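Researcher: If only I could read backbone structure tokens as easily as an amino acid sequence. Walk me, if you will, through where the backbone shape changes along the chain. I have put the entry right below:
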Amino acid sequence: MADDKQVVDQDATGDLLVEIGSGNVFADLDFANPDEEAVKARIVRKIQKVIDERGLTQKQAGDIIGLPQSKVSTLLRGKWDSDYTVDRLTRYLNKLGVSVTYSFKDQPDWREGRLVVID
């Protein structure tokens, strides 16, 4: 996906001035699984939104989802590791009172599908 970036403008020496990203910052930064990382980011943003809407502290949210406050803080700052799978983050949403629905769509030419979050 990183190849989808477009150079918009260069100066006289050829140095990049403006570049339009691919639409996935994780792909632009050459993450190994950019679609999965983008999905995790969307789920974590939803977790933050639910915590805010419910007026929960990070400690209260952690008690609900089974994490210490320090791990909730780290997660909400976008610092997750491989232990935080899409499935695990989805379970946190469920514990916070959010139902998650999966939808399947066949690709017309049977090319590889994508994991997408729509909220």
Notes: The chain has two domains: 1-31, 32-119.
